[in-house]
Write a structure and sequence with these properties.
Blueprint: E1 10-11, E2 16-17, E3 20-26, H1 36-52, E4 55-62, E5 66-73, H2 79-97, H3 100-104, E6 116-119, H4 125-134, H5 143-148
Antiparallel strand pairs: 1-2, 3-5, 3-6, 4-5
Helix pairs in contact: 1-2
Length: 155
């Protein structure tokens, strides 16, 4: 689900758009359940979800307890709609495909009730977010803090 470069403008019937969302969903109770088998299944499920709905998952990245999505969507599709659809369908399909997950979570939910959503900017932000999402699970633990608070430079 990775893309090599920034997509071009999309032309609809009544609009031209370039809408991208960065979404983050956390596993319930912050359980470290996103192992390679679960991520592979989640990737398969994600492809099926995007075929049925009006958004495209451009990049999916997972750490042990949360997943990042970089999505493109028509302006009429809100980030909240994508989150609701993705969380409900992916949880249902994960529990169906991997019943052992249900034993590690109680209450019938795979994801927490909250999520993170941000629009991705046009000038430089897209590539930065895409790389960040792709590098989930393959980075030093303090990398996230480094992005927010870069170390001082000797100038």
């Amino acid at each position: 689900m990775a893309t090599a470069s920034r997509p071009r403008l999309v032309r609809g019937w009544h609009c031209v758009y370039d809408m991208h969302y960065h979404l983050v969903f956390t596993v319930k109770y912050r359980r470290a359940l996103l192992d390679p088998q679960v991520v592979a299944e989640l990737t398969r499920i994600s492809r099926e979800i995007q075929e049925r709905y009006e958004f495209q998952i451009e990049t999916l990245g997972a750490d042990s307890d949360h997943v990042h999505l970089l999505c493109a969507a028509h302006p009429k599709v809100a980030a909240g709609q994508i989150a609701r659809i993705y969380k409900s369908l992916s949880a249902r399909e994960l529990f169906k495909a991997l019943p052992s997950l249900r034993k590690q979570l109680w209450g019938g939910a795979f994801w927490t009730s909250s999520y993170f959503a941000a629009t991705v900017g046009q000038f430089g932000g897209y590539e930065s977010v895409r790389r960040y999402v792709e590098e989930q699970g393959h980075r030093p633990e303090d990398w996230n803090l480094w992005l927010e608070f870069p170390p001082p430079t000797d100038e």
